[in-house]
Design goal:
The structure holds two protein chains of two kinds.
Chain A lengths: L5 H18 L7 H6 L1 H11 L14 E4 L5 H10 L39 H14 L6 E6 L6 H12 L5 E7 L2 E2 L2 E2 H4 L5 H7 L4 E5 L3 H9 L9 E6 L22 H12 L15
Parallel strand pairs in A: 1-2, 2-3, 3-7, 6-7
Antiparallel strand pairs in A: 4-5
Helix pairs in contact in A: 1-3, 1-4, 1-10, 3-9
Chain B lengths: L3 H9 L5 E5 L9 H5 L3 E3 L4 H13 L3 E7 H7 L1 H9 L6 E5 L17 H6 L5 E3 L4 H13 L4 E4 L19 E4 L4 E5 L4 H13 L4 E5 L2 E3 L3 H10 L2 E9 L4 H11 L5 E7 L9 H7 L4 H15 L1
Parallel strand pairs in B: 1-2, 1-3, 3-4, 4-6, 5-6, 8-9, 8-11, 11-12
Antiparallel strand pairs in B: 5-10, 7-9
Helix pairs in contact in B: 1-7, 3-5, 8-12
The chains are: A alpha/beta, B alpha/beta.
């Protein structure tokens, strides 16, 4: 880990967003949910986790798991920027000669476990955290969950177990972009007050702005919040962050843009002008 | 003969890879918390978290042995087994308690009689259905040491037969040899099938009885050899007729372009009558005596 400056983090996150936009054409990807957690993933890999391309097989490395696997373009984009995979490998998105598709695959260096079915990786993380405790190792296990994903009951039984076993080496980060697939969480199955819910399960929770690197620095430095259970960070984010034309829009869930639209969106990222989007992107997946 | 728990402890005690886990079903592992200390993990009544956490442990090189009621383990947590254990092929061992008729009077909620169908449908998942506790103890080390995930149907029954210690995954145990009738069986009905075979032999019929032990991988050649030399093959199982041994046999025969006389004894599109074991067996006509009569009657119709 080399601690990156604010400017450097911002540049890396920008580059990752470009990768994500490129992956949203030619078959598409879950662009909105990927853009909401870019800043978190970039920060965690750059300045928090003791992880780099040379220690990916170290048994005592820190572990990050993406429980909402459909945001994997953010992970792969970050891997490309940090040299964990080659940038040109991202061109293999959805190609049968590689393993880069809509959900994570362990054959890609840096991916600790596959996901896609929601509500699984908190349980898997508990197993990894228990193993670390048994080996008296102090490395961290981080799980990024979605917010809509929290509808799944398995998360809540896992929280009970994590607190029961006092897994203070487990950090749960909720990408609180306020959307589940095609609808706002609070309009369908409201989660608020979410902080109270986690705390009632024995897991102290803190809310931050999930796009503010300074806030991340301050809050992650405070982890673990307790010795008696996992820590939870609820990162308030915007689905589609960085692209005003798709930000916080229920209909921009899975997008498969035309080549022209991808070019327009790349310009929109720079603030040049807002993209005009016309293609039918209401793909339900 | 050692108990299951003693054998499990013998295998696990000096090998830190083994983690004994349960979703608060400690019936067969009561001494484990004390014996294994931190390597015993009880997640409470949480089959999904049990399986997910086992996957995480296995990912780190551990070898978790899970205990839960067969129904809730294989059905409530099915997608966790399939997704977190099955897809990566992790060596997690799933011990299903009170499967098949052994759920006795609990009723359909607790009747795991589609468990084999579900587990064998997962790529690389092995299925071990020992006949009784002795058969379980004989095979346990091979199954636990195997690198693949395994579902173990826990047979909480004493043995009425001296099983062969010669165990290997994918090998059936031939309990009697004969030329007229083949009986294929596994698990809790082995005891009845064995006594039925003896009764049939007393009546002059020559019966080949195979205790299949692992249904996946199956001992294809033992099954095919016996099928081909006898006039009638009977599958005896406490499972739905769809997806269990009868289906496994049908798949094997079709693959080998074979057909013949097969009598399936299983639960056909229904759950069984909840009652104490001996009454279940009687009501469902799967006691040794009933089996012998049903098999003899089917055989006589052929000749």
């Amino acid at each position: 880990m080399t601690t990156k400056s604010l400017t450097s983090l911002e540049q890396t996150a920008f580059n990752v967003r470009e990768h994500i936009v490129r992956m949203s054409g030619n078959g598409g990807c879950f662009i909105g949910a990927s853009l909401s957690c870019v800043d978190l993933i970039v920060y965690l890999y750059s300045n928090f986790l003791h992880l780099n391309k040379d220690n990916l097989n170290d048994p005592d490395r820190d572990i990050l798991l993406l429980s909402k696997g459909h945001d994997v373009p953010a992970l792969y984009g970050t891997f490309a920027e940090l040299g964990i995979i080659e940038k040109k490998r991202l061109n293999n998105h959805l190609q049968t000669n590689d393993y880069i598709y809509w959900h994570p695959n362990r054959k890609i260096p840096g991916v600790e476990f596959h996901s896609g079915s929601l509500g699984h990786l908190l349980s898997v993380a508990i197993g990894i955290a228990l193993d670390a405790k048994l080996r008296r190792q102090t490395h961290r296990v981080v799980v990024i969950t979605g917010d809509g994903e929290l509808d799944e009951g398995s998360n809540w039984e896992a929280l009970l177990v994590a607190a029961a076993y006092k897994l203070d080496n487990l950090l749960i980060i909720c990408d609180r972009n306020e959307f589940q697939a095609n609808i706002e969480t609070e309009r369908l199955i409201p989660l608020e007050p979410l902080t109270n819910k986690f705390e009632a399960f024995g897991c102290p929770a803190v809310e931050i702005d999930g796009h503010d690197f300074n806030a991340m620095r301050d809050v992650f430095a405070e982890t673990p919040f307790t010795k008696s259970g996992p820590s939870v960070v609820i990162a308030r984010t915007i689905r589609g962050k960085g692209l005003p034309s798709i930000e916080a829009r229920a209909d921009r869930w899975f997008c498969n843009f035309t080549d022209h639209e991808v070019q327009e969106l790349l310009k929109e990222l720079t603030g040049e002008h807002k993209a005009k989007l016309t293609s039918e992107t209401l793909t339900v997946r | 003969m050692m108990t299951y728990e003693d054998k499990l402890y013998e295998i696990a005690k000096d090998n830190d890879a083994y983690i004994v886990m349960t979703a608060e079903n400690r019936a067969f592992i009561r001494k484990m918390p004390e014996l294994l200390g931190e390597r015993f993990i009880d997640t409470g009544i949480t089959e999904q978290t049990l399986v997910g956490a086992a996957a995480g442990l296995a990912l780190r090189g551990r070898r978790p042995v899970l205990h839960a009621l067969a129904t809730f383990l294989t059905m409530r947590a099915f997608e966790f087994i399939r997704t977190d254990v099955g897809i990566p092929g992790l060596p997690v061992k799933l011990v299903g308690a009170f499967p098949g008729v052994l759920s006795e009077a609990n009723g359909p909620t607790h009747q795991a009689i589609e468990d084999i169908s579900l587990m064998r449908g997962i790529p690389n998942m092995g299925v071990f259905c020992p006949a009784d506790l002795e058969d379980l103890v004989i095979g346990l080390e091979s199954i636990l040491e195997s690198e693949r995930p395994f579902y173990i149907r826990y047979p909480n029954l004493p043995a009425n037969y001296q099983h062969s210690n010669n165990f290997s995954i994918g090998s059936a145990e031939t309990c009697s040899e004969g030329d007229d009738i083949t009986i294929l069986t596994y698990g809790a009905l082995f005891t009845q099938a064995f006594e039925a075979a003896q009764a049939l032999q007393k009546k002059g019929l020559s019966v080949q009885l195979l205790n299949l032990r692992t249904l996946k991988p199956l001992d294809d050649s033992a099954v095919l050899d016996s099928f081909q030399k006898t006039k009638l093959t009977v599958t005896v199982e406490d499972h739905f007729q769809i997806g269990g041994l009868y289906s496994i046999l049908a798949e094997l025969l079709l693959k080998n372009k074979l057909s013949g006389n097969v009598l399936p004894i299983a639960f056909d599109e229904r759950w069984f009558k909840p009652a104490l074991l001996k009454d279940v067996l009687e009501y469902e006509k799967i006691t040794a005596e009933h089996l012998a009569n049903r098999i003899k009657s089917a055989y006589e119709k052929l000749t």
